[in-house]
Amino acid sequence: MAKGYLLTKSKYIRGLQCDRALWLDVHRPNLARYSAEQMRRFDRGRDFEQAVRDSFPTGHNISLDLGRNTSAYPEHTAKLLDENPEAVLFEAGFLYDDVLVLADIVCQRPDGSLDIFEIKSGSKLSDTYRRDAAIQHYVIAHCRPLHSFNVIHANPPADNPGSSEQSNNSELPFTIVDLTDDLDAQSDTIAHNISIMKDIALDTKEPTTPTGQHCLEPYACPYQHYCAQGIRQLALF
Length: 237
Known about the structure:
The protein contains nine helices and eight strands. The chain has 237 residues and is α/β, with parallel strands linked by helices.
């Protein structure tokens, strides 16, 4: 576990799916195995993310400053926001309640409030995207005043225009959906989930959660092979 935080957005999402997968993510991440298709999906997501970022030409990518030193992201982010009233940042870090999140795009307004844009390569706003946005909103809203929290996703195919909740500029290859009001109402639930997940992450004993449909939905778990084999090894500290 990295110094300064216990959970991340990805670990929180993992914990919603399976407590054992969360524990493995914290203590035994070397056991994760990703399929070729999953890796291709990651690549497509990165390509789409870059395409969206290109529409924010003044953006500064914090990962270019700090690389994998994620513990330093929140302090560096705060410094850049304090120095530039209208900063546009990529991979901005925020830390609250032992949870670290890195926001895809952060745009600061002159009054100091933030517009957050989370980028998703899918062509519709799924429940998993909403859960992903919820944990980020919770952490960031406790660090800085928020003006809006938005999810950017790819435009649906022309023959499937999508839902009426979309707010889209037809000249752009993506849709922006403002989830601010929905996410504001989830704070208590998020805090409760985090409390449970921190206990799981700090436990020295691996959960014995059995395999099941949750190993496949909403994401294929990278620890399926391990759990299916019934391997039990002591966690390394």
